[in-house]
């Protein structure tokens, strides 16, 4: 008769859910508060840096426009046109009240924005029409 091989003890089944003890929960809460405070401090620091950068650009803009008027006066209108095309409607109105904004550039920028809106609406309508056509075609094949 053969001696049976010794069997390894069966593993204890793991519980399927991890449960935190109250002490673990307290440490986790403290760690999350600490992480939140660090993230908040860093976010405020980053916001301040960006605010200062925007302010520096704004303070330099007039000097740059003065230089541009002397060296390439035709570019001043292009600058205002391009900025106006990408600004919100409110900012566009404010922007064109600037002392150096050329006459007529506000209307030109608004025409461009209106053209882009019309093109976008036409593209959406064409996409919707194409989707309807595909849906109709798939229904007729069934």
Condensed summary:
By secondary structure, the protein is mostly helical. The protein has helices at 22-71, 73-86, 89-95, 105-141.
Question: Can you walk through the features of this model?
Answer:
The protein contains 4 helices and no strands. Helix 1 (22-71) packs antiparallel against helix 2. The protein has helices at 22-71, 73-86, 89-95, 105-141. The protein is an all-alpha fold and 142 residues long.
Largest sheet: none
SS element count, helices: 4
Distance between the termini: 72 Å
The gyration radius over C-alpha positions equals 33 Å
Q: Looking at the structure, what is the overall shape?
A: flat
Structural class: mainly alpha
Average pLDDT metric: 89
Spell out the blueprint of helices and strands:
Blueprint: H1 22-71, H2 73-86, H3 89-95, H4 105-141
Helix pairs in contact: 1-2, 2-4
């Amino acid at each position: 008769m053969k001696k049976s091989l010794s069997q390894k003890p069966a593993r204890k089944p793991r519980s399927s859910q991890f449960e935190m003890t109250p002490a673990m929960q307290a440490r986790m809460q403290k760690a999350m508060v600490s992480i939140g405070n660090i993230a908040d401090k860093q976010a405020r620091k980053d916001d301040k840096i960006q605010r200062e950068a925007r302010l520096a650009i704004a303070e330099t803009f007039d000097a740059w426009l003065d230089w541009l008027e002397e060296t390439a006066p035709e570019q001043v209108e292009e600058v205002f046109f391009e900025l106006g095309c990408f600004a919100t409607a409110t900012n566009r109105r404010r922007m064109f009240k600037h002392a150096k904004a050329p006459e007529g550039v506000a209307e030109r920028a608004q025409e461009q924005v209106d053209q882009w809106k019309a093109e976008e609406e036409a593209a959406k309508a064409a996409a919707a029409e194409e989707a309807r056509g595909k849906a109709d075609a798939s229904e007729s094949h069934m």
